[in-house]
UniProtKB/TrEMBL annotation:
It comes from Tepidibacter hydrothermalis. Mg(2+) binds at residues 101, 226. One of its GO terms (molecular function) is UDP-N-acetylglucosamine diphosphorylase activity. Binds 1 Mg(2+) ion per subunit. This is Bifunctional protein GlmU. Its main location: cytoplasm. Residues 264-329 form the Mannose-1-phosphate guanyltransferase C-terminal domain. It is an enzyme of class 2 (transferase).
Length: 456
């Protein structure tokens, strides 16, 4: 079975009250339309066609996974949208039609829909569910034998049809040949003046083809995101799914309601996540880590047995058995080795720090290469910027940088070089040497009295 998806993403989404197209609003860090594409691919779709309309180029620029696109210049209904993809529909294809604003549909639900479609030899299958209050949804109308007759939109439903509580999800599976045939026969003779994809079901039924309805989803999965309120609801639902997945795979999350983990994050077993933590992007966290309260980790790789307290880590790598924080900031391109200590109020940027080194507190390490077993004292500043250009500092293995020192780049502290407290280093420090770069202390006795500073 050559399975393809057609994803409807042409609408403006006026209720979002946003300059951004509706389908580009993010849920747990990923655009809604990309959620749908990802789910379709996981469910087995080998080709995905996204129907674009409002702000087509902006949406296209944000699509991932090499999808194909088609343009719906005027939004004349769901049937019209699928017509725009007719060149991508082959007679022997199986086509699943999805909505770009339903990011909560599950891969497993789509796979069961495909299985039902195949096993029951249908040419079209509608995904449905039953709800207590079907207001606003299209109704699935069955005959006395429970076979599908048609789908009726809310505004076109009779009083009796409106009482039906089995609703249309807007998700369908079609055989390509019959879909193309029926699309050529739909009309816009309805209250909205639109071409409904739902009319395809009645057309196929009247042509004598087998049409099925698979009641196999939850209303939560089918929730369309049409407003900021819907967006927040979807965020909470998906956040809880993600957190549950990690907990089921051996991660301890102390307070799931206050822990925010995006879809692509990977976390090893026996890691503990404390409340207020935000982990996003393509982040990987190893086993036996402790991620303390109020941490933010983005697009970073955290190895095993790392302890992070109340710190921010962006686009960086942290090696095994390292501690970070509290209140540390690892800016992009920080590569921290194993058994390293990055202490409180230490900022690292575009730097490599070797194994067993430590910067325990109040330091700035920017554009630097720091070797192994290096001590960086309190108040050390790697002075990397002259107002126009950035320069690099090198501190080799087993060096010692005393407290309150400035390393004015470009400068190198050779292996086992020592820098005395309070020094400003502008020249290279030879290996095994002590460098002292500070003015000689001068005490002027009686100076305060001579100045009369404390006279009344």
């Amino acid at each position: 079975m050559n399975l393809k998806s057609i994803i409807l993403a042409a609408g403006k989404g006026t209720r979002m009250k946003s300059k951004l197209p509706k389908v580009l609003h993010k849920v747990c860090g990923t655009e809604m339309v990309n959620h749908v594409i990802n789910i379709a691919m996981k469910a087995g779709c080998t080709e995905n066609v996204v129907i674009l309309g409002h702000e087509a180029q902006m949406v296209k620029d944000n699509l991932k996974n090499n999808v194909k696109t088609a343009i719906q210049e005027k939004q004349l209904g769901t049937g019209h949208a699928v017509m725009m993809a007719k060149d991508h529909i082959k007679e022997d294809d199986k086509i699943v039609v999805l909505c770009g604003d339903t990011p909560l549909i599950k891969e497993s639900t789509l796979q069961r829909l495909f299985d039902y479609h195949k096993e029951n030899k249908c040419v079209a299958t509608v995904l449905t569910t039953k709800v207590d209050n079907p207001t606003g949804y299209g109704r699935l109308i069955r005959d006395d034998n429970e076979d599908v007759l048609k789908i009726v939109e809310q505004k076109d439903a009779t009083e009796e049809e409106a009482k039906v509580n089995e609703i249309n999800s807007g998700i369908y599976c079609f055989n390509g040949k019959e879909l193309k045939m029926s699309l050529s026969k739909i009309s816009n003779n309805n209250n909205q003046g639109e071409y409904y994809l739902t009319d395809v079901i009645e057309i196929l039924k009247n042509e004598g083809f087998k049409v099925g309805a698979y009641e196999g989803s939850t209303i939560e999965e089918l929730m369309g995101v049409n407003s900021r309120v819907d967006l927040q609801r979807a965020e909470n639902i998906l956040k809880n799914r993600i957190n549950q997945y990690h907990m089921e795979n051996g991660v301890t999350i102390i307070d799931s309601n206050n822990t925010y983990i995006e879809c692509d994050v990977k976390i090893g077993m026996d890691t503990i996540i404390y409340p207020g933590t935000i982990i996003n992007g393509n982040t990987t966290i190893g086993e036996d880590c402790t991620i303390g309260a109020n941490c933010r980790i983005e697009n970073s790789s955290i190895n095993n047995n790392v302890k992070i307290q109340s710190s921010t880590i962006i686009d960086s790598t942290v090696g095994n058995n390292t501690t970070v924080g509290p209140y540390a900031y690892l800016r992009p391109k920080s590569n921290i080795g194993e058994n390293v200590k990055i202490g409180d109020f230490v900022e690292v940027k575009n730097s490599t720090i070797g194994d067993n080194s430590k910067a325990s507190h109040l330091a700035y390490i920017g554009d630097a290469s720091v070797g192994k077993n290096v001590n960086i004292g309190c108040g050390v500043v790697f002075v990397n910027y002259d107002g126009k250009n950035k320069f690099k500092s090198i501190v080799e293995d087993n060096a010692f940088i005393g407290s309150n020192c400035n390393l004015v780049a470009p400068v190198t502290v050779k292996e086992k070089g020592y820098v005395a407290t309070g020094s400003t280093i502008t020249d290279d420090v030879p290996g095994g040497s002590l460098s002292i770069a500070r003015a000689k202390q001068v005490n002027k006795e009686g100076w305060v009295d001579k100045k009369g500073i404390f006279k009344k």
